[in-house]
Write a structure and sequence with these properties.
It contains 28 helices and 17 strands. By secondary structure, the chain is of the alpha/beta class. The chain starts with a helix and ends with a helix. Bound molecules: adenosine-5'-diphosphate (ADP) and zinc ion. The site of zinc ion has 9 residues, from helix 17 and helix 18.
Length: about 600
């Protein structure tokens, strides 16, 4: 049994972190003692340490199985920076290099070895492992074994062989996919039925969630990026390939380093864009959801949605790619009625079974509920994943509580307008009728003769849009896709029309995001002028260092480490060693340069 204090000293010495986070300590101890584990932790929760530290504590090499081949080299680079002896075996290696790594393994010169799953299960590789001393097996992205999931990898099914061939080597499977079905599938298919299960909170406290009403999505996005994230790395999600290309080109024309990414692009261009995002600083990728797994960049400062995702799961997974380094990050989304209409149409006109359509519809409703709520977004999100929590103070609704208003009268007028016009028109025309606009379309249908004509002059067009959108989101109005998005009354509308139910609505804002002071951003250090200047010097130094070593910048030191340096300005090496993210090796290597920049 390895003592907990030994684990802590590895954490401090090698990784430069003062304390374990959440369940890490327990997991490390369990594994170091030879136990099997199934770990469910959100993205950015700190899964890697759960196998890296035990690999260093136990004799032999820790074998890490990951489907993300493109990232292995970066992970090895990050380990090497820490003085950990790490290697990689995958299909991109030339034979000589692979042989050298195999020799290192057999002769006990490796702490960690990253292996691609398809390579691991070859007879040759299994034989190799049989001849080596093994500390543990870590199966990363373990949900890839799930045949129902989107990330299914057939090679993962073969991994049960590890348990059969090496029953005495402890195994740890890790995933950020939370649902119970996937969890059971992992345990069953990987033979981890007896493993201890560690489930963490899925909260991502450093992410600020905001959802704004769509007015002019691109312009809103640009204002958001300029106001909050100039020169930051970020991801912008759109639904279609065409929109991805157009948005990326438009952002680029506005002077932002923006690159498109979608499944329709040729492979070379796609991987070039991914590589630039991963390696350079301040690159914005505009993507369809095809841009997902395979991004392991910890310093993504924002994820923006220009279109609604299909479900809260999708939204949470996509926004989860922001701020894995625990530094403040934004999840920003703009949405409007057209999005709801488009998604509902996609569901209803799909070839899928009725069951599937029903489930998809319910998932969309849950997401709309999140968009329209006037309460804490995080409370809603966590509730969806079965966690109770208190208002977070770090979402748009908490930071700038939205006004709600009694929309009963407006709702009644809107519903009447739908009814009186024969439930055959979309929101645009209905708003014209309500506001008494005398145009060609109104005249063609003689709608200027209706009792509802002009009864809504008192409200602005934008407010009417928000009323119709919320009526759809609240389920009082349905969208008829056979009839080009005409709005129809749904059952709950009846009670409002009869005056039985009142309707409260949120007054939407189209501001770029919550206006907040630095102090309100969770985890954000409050840098003064000189501090901010210092930070920019530190970043410039890091960029040079990263270029010289051809590794991603965060591998040198991550954003929150730099912020802490600028904030606390340590005076000497001992002070530097106190900073989170500076272990013995980095202290030795970068300490003098950092002190020079800090003017010590
Ligand atoms: P995951 O694989 O769960 O998405 P990572 O293992 O990549 O997350 O860790 C996310 C970030 O959190 C990394 O930048 C890592 O250095 C940091 N981190 C993990 N554990 C700790 C800890 N105990 N103290 C400080 N930082 C930590
Ligand atoms: Zn909140």
């Amino acid at each position: 049994m390895v003592s907990p204090s030994k684990a802590l000293s590895v954490l401090r010495e090698t990784f430069g972190h003062p304390e374990f986070r959440g369940a890490q300590a327990e997991i490390v101890e369990h594994l170091a003692g030879g136990g099997d584990a199934l770990v469910l932790m959100p993205t950015g929760g700190g899964k890697s340490l759960c196998y890296q530290v035990p690999s260093l504590l136990r004799p032999g090499t820790g074998i890490v199985i990951s489907p993300l081949i493109a990232l292995m080299e970066d992970q090895v680079a990050a380990m090497t920076q820490l003085g950990v002896r790490a290697g990689v075996l995958n299909s991109t290696l030339d034979a000589a290099k692979a042989r050298a790594t195999e020799r290192d393994l057999i002769e006990g010169r490796l702490d960690l070895l990253y292996v691609a799953p398809e390579r691991l299960t070859t007879p040759r590789c299994l034989e190799l492992l049989g001849a080596a001393r093994l500390a543990l097996f870590a199966i990363d992205e373990a949900h890839c074994v799930s045949q129902w999931g989107h990330d299914f990898r057939p090679e993962y099914l073969q991994l049960s062989v590890l348990h059969e061939r090496f029953p005495e080597v402890p195994r740890i499977a890790l995933t950020a996919t939370a649902d119970p079905v996937t969890r059971r599938e992992i345990a069953q298919r990987l033979g981890l039925g007896d493993a201890r299960v560690f489930v963490s909170s899925f909260d991502r406290p450093n992410i600020t969630y905001s959802i704004v009403e769509k007015v002019d999505a691109r312009a809103q996005l640009l204002r958001f990026i300029r106001a909050e994230h100039a020169a930051d790395a970020g991801i912008v999600y759109c639904l279609s390939r065409k929109k991805v290309e157009e948005t990326a080109a438009w952002l680029a024309a506005q002077g932002i380093t923006a690159l498109p990414y979608h499944a329709g692009m040729d492979a070379a261009r796609r991987s070039a864009h991914q590589a630039r995002f991963q390696r350079e600083e301040g690159v914005v990728v505009v993507a369809t959801i095809a841009f997902g797994m395979g991004i392991d960049k910890p310093d993504v400062r924002f994820v923006a949605h220009l279109d609604l995702p299909k479900s809260i799961e999708g939204y949470y997974q996509e926004t989860g790619r922001a701020g894995r380094d625990q530094a403040p990050a934004d999840a920003w989304m703009t949405y409007g009625l057209a999005d709801v209409v488009q998604l509902r149409r996609l569901i209803e006109t799909s070839e899928a079974s009725e069951d599937y359509k029903r489930v998809s519809g319910a998932k969309l409703d849950a997401l709309l509920g999140l968009c329209e709520t006037a309460q804490c977004r995080r409370v809603r999100l966590l509730q969806y994943f079965g966690e109770e929590s208190a208002p977070c103070g770090n979402c748009d609704n908490c930071l700038v509580p939205p006004e709600t208003w009694d929309a009963t009268e407006a709702a009644r007028k809107a519903l009447s307008a739908i009814y009186r016009t024969g439930q055959r028109f979309g929101a645009m025309h209905l708003i014209d009728v309500l506001r008494g606009r005398d145009n060609e379309r109104v005249r063609r249908w003689h709608h200027e003769e209706l009792s509802v004509f002009g009864v809504g002059r008192d409200l602005e067009e934008g407010l009417w849009r928000s009323v119709f959108r919320q009526l759809v989101a609240l389920g009082m109005v349905e969208v008829d896709h056979e009839a080009y998005g005409a709005l129809k009354l749904a059952e709950p509308a009846r009670r409002v029309l009869k005056g039985l139910d009142e309707v409260q609505m949120r007054r939407s804002a189209d501001t770029p995001g919550p206006r907040r002071t630095r102090a309100t951003r969770v985890g954000a250090p409050e840098l003064d002028g000189p501090g901010a200047l210092l930070l920019s010097h530190l970043k410039a130094w890091r960029l040079e260092e990263a270029r010289a070593q051809s590794v991603p910048a965060y591998v040198i030191l991550n954003d929150s480490t730099l912020s802490q340096l600028a904030l606390r300005r340590p005076e000497d090496l001992a002070g530097l060693a106190q900073i989170n993210g500076i272990g013995a090796k980095k202290l030795e290597r970068y300490g003098p340069a950092l002190l020079r920049i800090l003017g010590r």
